[in-house]
Specification:
GO terms for molecular function: alpha-1,4-glucosidase activity; carbohydrate binding. Helices cover 19% and strands 25% of the residues. The chain has 931 residues and is an alpha+beta fold. Among the domains are: 60 residues, Spasmolytic Protein, domain 1 (Irregular), CATH 4.10.110.10; 219 residues, glycosyl hydrolase (family 31) (Immunoglobulin-like); 146 residues, no CATH class; 127 residues, Sandwich (Immunoglobulin-like). A hairpin with a 7-residue loop joins β7 and β8. α9 packs across α12 and α14 packs parallel to α15. The N terminus is likely disordered.
């Protein structure tokens, strides 16, 4: 006979089997992400254990009964609904909040929709720190939010045509103090974004389950195979292309440790351990419009100086100033255009900020010499300062805020007692590059004291060394040797590591119930404080915790340093930061971190650069030729060629590895010289792209699908990119390759590299020659006008003296372009009153009559604007009548010796006898006729 216990067991089994069948295998929410589950450990969480092996890669063996868990609709109010926790399966990582408020703001019908889910009582809200501009760009598309009264309740964000963009009917809403989860079904698998991580392809892979951590961590990227680790910055934003070809974006405004899992359904699961669910939906409907809307909301990127777009040389491991000088001279002797010389921590005295080492005597004179040659210098500054020298004493005297412990009994006496300047403080001291312990400035200080001290130290140092830009590193912040248990032995020289409380009454911050993928990826011995400060540490002048603000450390240092650099130099701020957060692009650029000298890292740096342009940081690039490891001639050559199209263009490598500047190999030197000359000649085009990014939120380097969203072939392309809307670049990223596959998405592209310059290329996919002796395969789009310098030069200072040249590519419609010009370095406080030229360029042909117009909608006031000296037109049908040229209706003189037309190449080049001024507001019109 069957006992009551047996029946109960059978009933429980029946329940689980039924749930297994009700949750499709492509939309399961992992209930045991931290380790391999057992049936017992899974069921103890009220979850379903299923060892099915025929599902997608990464299918959870232990998954939630998501369709039964969540909150029920409890009534509507003015801007949303109140929600009541249902009696479904329990939350594995905390006690559920009993009631929630779901608020909807449709932005008064302008397209952008905000959905917030939070508790009745106040919670940490990162928006109070960021102070985002939240500018709204009206859209032709509107979104709506429908809240379901089903049990459990859900909501759907959709377009007016019914397309569901974010459908939470999948279930699984959880909200507790230190664990929040929301899941949604998506309209397609064409997702791009989330960061900072290494993605093997630009488009996310929905053939499998994949989790990505987002929490600032000073961990080097690894592009070998699939590595889903969280890196230096946090950008919880994605763009998705719908089946119709329309695009939308979603931004999760949250700074706590978080992760996202993509589901094959397609769908996603978003989790965070603090704050609230604050989601913004951008309707597009084109990819470029999505990004413009997102950048308007978070803040558009800063405008870099002209010199900052030049080639940059760096190395960690110069033994002395003479060592640095010798490598700079070697590069210059090859005739390679070069603008910026860097000094890494080698220049400091024992790696302490605002010092100069004994092997760097005369550093100030050398920088002055570089300035005399039209070049610039960027120095590295780490945020943490050693606590036993004058810089720290001045900070203490000025009541500067540092990251600190909450109570004195948490302070580690074995550390603090070593330092008379710090032994009466609760400062959380750690180890980084200096020999002794350091303290970490609190750049979120609610007073101005910390910022004022930082400014004072920069100005003091500037009196010694006239540096031009700031490279801020280690600002996740990274801390060496952080531990969660005390060490067993006495360290050398008293270098005790900071120990974070992982057990006991103080462990709730450093050991929360849910550790996120930022821990799960690294294994059981990991914890959230690894390689950083303890999350229990106090920030924002002791009113907040690193638990909430760690991922904002780099952002806050960037914001502060940007303002400090303006006040220190009196010129435009040029700051490069390792750690970034949403809106960091307003203040700083970013390099992609401590990559490795291999082909995988070259390849992923291409897609990463496109991602950071989406994130609002277009001044971005990689350590060219690789930071770690031994680079080689072919790899370095191809990397130099590819990176010459990235806004931040720096060769950099690590101590202990051979020199890898381009002068090391004659072939690399020749290829770099050629690539840099192309870049320097086209700097007006690149500078104009950054201007458009700064005023309109455009991208500089963008995926092909931004321009061709209806062409599904472009959705899968990760390593060919657009330079603005008019130029496509197809770099070589494979060892041994002498050709590269290029996809030309439409008729009317022309080659502008060595192979068949000016020749029209066929639409579709084709292999193009890419010998090491030529530039990267580069093609310009029909109906475009590209502003450029008449020729290249060895520095941006020199090339700015060159007159302008225009490349005109005709098409079925009028050819257009734009030109921006200013003095290249002045601080821009207000675009309305700034001194610059913003000109629309247009070319049209009606029969035998041709016209070129430069219409300066904003004219220069006092700056020097180079004149227009020449133009070139591809695919020109016949010879022009040189005697027919007029300028604003008056006859103009053309150099008949320098001007020419080829019936074979169909390229027309016109050189003016006297260059044409274009700086004043108004139109300049050149007309002519053909023979």
């Amino acid at each position: 006979s069957t006992s009551r216990a047996d029946m109960k067991a059978l009933g429980l089994l029946f329940l689980f089997v039924g749930v297994q069948c009700s949750i499709p295998i492509d939309r399961r929410i992992d209930c045991h992400p931290e380790s391999e589950p057992t049936e017992i450990s899974c069921q103890s969480r009220d979850c379903v254990f299923d060892q099915t092996t025929n599902g997608p890669i990464g299918t959870p063996k232990c998954y939630m009964q998501a369709d039964k868990m969540g909150y029920n609709f409890a009534g509507s109010n003015d801007n949303g609904a109140s929600l009541q926790k249902n009696d479904g399966p329990r939350n594995p990582w905390g006690e559920d909040e009993p009631t929630l408020q779901l608020s909807v703001d449709n932005g008064k019908g302008n397209g952008v929709v905000n959905v917030r889910i939070t508790t009745q009582t106040p919670r940490f809200d990162v928006s109070s720190i960021l102070a985002l501009p939240r500018e709204i760009i009206p859209s032709e598309e509107s979104l709506k939010v429908d809240i379901s009264i089903n049990k459990p309740s859900s909501f759907v964000v959709s377009r007016e045509d019914g397309t569901k963009l974010f459908d939470t009917s999948i279930g699984g809403l959880i909200f507790s103090d230190k664990f929040i989860q929301i899941a949604a079904l998506l309209p397609s698998d064409k997702m791009y974004g989330w960061g900072e991580n290494i993605h093997q392809s630009l488009k996310h892979d929905f053939t499998r389950y994949t989790s990505w951590g987002m929490f600032a961590k000073g961990d080097a990227p690894n592009s070998t195979d699939l590595h889903t680790a969280n890196l230096y910055g946090v950008h919880p934003f994605y763009l998705l292309i719908e089946p119709s070809g329309k695009a939308h974006g979603v931004f999760f405004l949250n700074s706590n440790a978080q992760d996202v899992t993509t589901l094959p359904a397609p769908g996603l699961v978003y989790r965070t351990i603090g704050g609230l669910l604050d989601m913004y939906f951008f309707p597009g409907p084109t990819p470029s419009q999505v990004i413009a809307q997102y950048h308007a909301f978070i803040g558009r990127p800063f405008m870099p100086s002209y010199w900052a777009l030049g080639y940059q040389l760096c190395r960690w491991g110069y033994k002395s100033l003479d060592d640095l000088k010798s490598r700079v001279s070697a590069v210059m002797e090859e005739g390679i255009p070069l603008d910026v010389v860097y000094a890494d921590i080698d220049y400091m005295d024992k790696r302490k900020d605002f010092t100069i080492g004994e092997n760097w005597s005369g550093f100030d004179e050398y920088i002055n010499e570089l300035h005399a040659n039209g070049m610039s210098t960027i120095l590295i500054f780490d945020p943490a300062v050693q606590v036993d020298y004058d810089v720290f004493q001045r900070a203490k005297d000025r009541d500067v805020s540092f990251i600190e412990w909450e109570r004195f009994d948490q302070v580690q006496p074995e550390i603090q007692n070593q330092y008379p300047m710090a032994n009466d403080t609760k400062l959380m001291l750690g180890l980084v590059w200096p020999d002794r312990h350091v303290a970490f400035p609190d750049f979120l200080d609610t007073t101005n004291k910390t910022n004022d001290w930082w400014e004072d130290e920069f100005k003091r140092y500037y009196q010694k060394v006239k540096f031009d830009g700031a490279w801020i590193d280690m600002n996740e912040p990274q801390v060496f040797y952080t531990r969660n248990t005390p060490i067993d032995e006495e360290p050398k020289n008293g270098r005790y590591p900071v120990v974070c409380p992982k057990t006991g009454p103080d462990a709730e911050w450093d050991s929360p119930p849910y550790q996120t993928h930022a821990v799960f990826y690294y294994g059981e011995d990991s914890f959230l404080g690894d390689d950083s400060l303890c999350l229990s540490g106090l920030s924002q002048r002791r009113t907040n915790r690193m638990y909430n603000t760690r991922s904002l450390y780099g952002w806050s240092e960037s914001k502060t340093t940007s303002e400090v650099m303006k006040k220190t130099t009196g010129r435009r701020s040029n700051v490069i930061s390792r750690s970034t957060f949403a809106s960091s692009g307003r203040y700083a650029g970013h390099w992609l971190g401590d990559n490795s000298a291999n082909w995988n890292d070259l390849r992923t740096s291409i897609s990463e650069t496109m991602e950071f342009n989406m994130f609002g940081i277009p001044y971005v690039g990689s350590d060219v030729c690789g930071f770690k490891g031994i680079s080689n001639q072919e790899l370095c050559l191809r990397w130099q060629q590819m990176a010459s199209y990235h806004s931040f263009f720096r060769n950099h490598n690590a101590i202990g590895y051979p020199y890898q500047d381009p002068a090391v190999w004659p072939t690399v030197a020749a290829a770099t010289k050629k690539a840099n000359e192309f870049r320097y000649r086209h700097l007006p085009y690149l500078y104009n792209l950054h201007y458009r990014a700064s005023i309109a939120g455009e991208t500089v380097v963008r995926p092909l699908f931004f321009e061709y969203p209806m062409d599904e072939k472009t959705h899968e392309i990760s390593y060919q990119f657009m330079w603005g809307k008019s130029i496509t670049v197809a770099p070589v990223y494979t060892q041994g390759a002498t050709t590269v596959d290029v996809y030309i998405p439409e008729e009317g592209y022309y080659s502008i590299y060595d192979e068949d310059y000016g020749v029209k290329v066929a639409m579709g996919k084709k292999a193009y020659a890419a010998p090491t002796t030529s530039n990267t395969p580069t093609f310009v789009r029909a109906s475009s006008i590209i502003p450029r310098h008449k020729s290249s030069a060895l520095t941006t200072t020199s090339v700015r003296l060159q007159p302008f040249s225009l490349l005109i590519v005709p098409g079925e419609v009028e050819s257009t372009g734009s030109l921006f010009w200013d003095d290249g370095d002045s601080i821009i406080e207000d675009w309305e009153t700034a001194d610059y030229v913003d000109a629309d360029l247009s070319y049209s042909a009606v029969g035998e009559s041709q016209s070129l117009t430069v219409n300066a909608t904003h004219g220069a006031k006092s700056i020097t604007v180079p004149p227009l000296a020449e133009f070139e037109i591809f695919d020109y049908p016949s010879s022009p009548d040189f005697a027919s040229f007029t300028l604003n209706g008056a006859k103009m003189s053309i150099s008949t010796q320098a001007s020419k037309y080829s019936r074979i190449t169909k390229i027309l080049k016109i050189v003016f006898t006297q260059s044409v001024p274009i700086g004043a507001q108004g139109s300049t019109v050149i007309r002519w006729k053909n023979v």
